[in-house]
Amino acid sequence: MTVSADQALDLYRVMATIRVFETTAGSLFAAGELPGFIHLSSGQEAVAAGVCSVLRRDDALTTTHRGHGHCIAKGGKVFGMLAELYGRAAGYGKGRSGSMHIADSSAGILGANAIVGGGLPMALGAAWSAQVRGEDRVAVAFFGDGAVAEGVFHETLNLAALWRLPLVLVCENNRVAEMTPSSVHLATTRVADFAGPYAIPGATVDGNDVLVVRDAAATAVARARAGEGPTLLECETHRIRGHFEGDPLRYRSAEETAAWAARDPLVLFRARLAELGVPSARVEAVDTEVAAEVRDAAAAAAAAAPAPVSSLLDDVRPGVS
Ligand SMILES: Cc1ncc(C[n+]2csc(CCOP(=O)(O)OP(=O)(O)O)c2C)c(N)n1
């Protein structure tokens, strides 16, 4: 799948927006500005940008506790997300959900999810809904290697394969769940191998190369849209920051950090943009615009009204105690 210079620059803009968003959120959290908890996806931008670049707005996705990047790449608004992180009434969850429950159904973002593996059956449901209604929408479930040993992962694969649902399962394999290496909890650490027993296509790709991810996702999405069923796509990647902000990263060696720093998806793609003939001035202009967008959104979110305490029980179903 070839990309034009403009398409490549669009992909770069998405990745740069995610990186700046995450760095900004990390700084705000460290400064004590954000209530709640955040998990940042720095280093994994190419997966979000590559997969979402081949989705339509009416396609659905579910994401995880580490979902900011997926939401941005699918068309989520930076202000709505930051306002949510700040606990503002103008946030996506009216300031009551926080980072791990950001959703925007108008952009097909069915939600982040604090429960590891929790988004998988929801995406399955969205895919089933599209099939039942005879619509050519697809659903994508993003999840980490930490979800792969869960029963719900296998149940989702089984049903999606059995009913040939338009579902793309995207595993961001960063090889560690919290502090537990996948070799400790997975019988096979090559996640794509789990496609075999369910007789669906499985592929392992370089999750730090946005064009490679985009190609693999395009194949999987085309297959799903054509009614041919699900694909398991494993993207090998690296989470640069800790599992949570403040994680001292004692489980990571300096060598591993250095090796992956050389494969930072933004660094790799800047080099690729140069090869594609995109002038560096255009790349720098994107960097400037993205920095301004996130800075302005953060300032507006900081200045926005907090969610009133009186709204705490709004939207909670009456009669449920
Ligand atoms: C069902 C469930 N079990 C345990 C947890 C605690 N927990 C939160 S994040 C996490 C690790 C998830 O790892 P992975 O799925 O690989 O995603 P990553 O953090 O690497 O993006 C765990 C065990 C949880 N939130 N939900």
TrEMBL record:
The yes or no answer to whether the keyword Nucleus is present is: no
Could you identify this protein by its name? Answer: Pyruvate dehydrogenase (Acetyl-transferring)
Record-linked InterPro entries: DH_E1 (IPR001017), PDH_E1_Alpha_Subunit (IPR050642), THDP-binding (IPR029061)
Q: Please name the top-level EC class of this enzyme.
A: oxidoreductase
- So which domain of life are we looking at? Bacteria
Per UniProt, residues of the Dehydrogenase E1 component domain are 15-305
Pfam families per record: E1_dh
GO molecular-function term, one example from the UniProt record: magnesium ion binding
Q: Where is the signal peptide?
A: none
Q: Does the keyword Oxidoreductase apply?
A: yes
EC number(s) per entry = 1.2.4.1
Q: Any idea which UniProt keywords this protein has?
A: Oxidoreductase, Pyruvate, Thiamine pyrophosphate
Query: Which co-factors does it depend on?
Result: thiamine diphosphate
GO biological process annotation, one example: pyruvate decarboxylation to acetyl-CoA
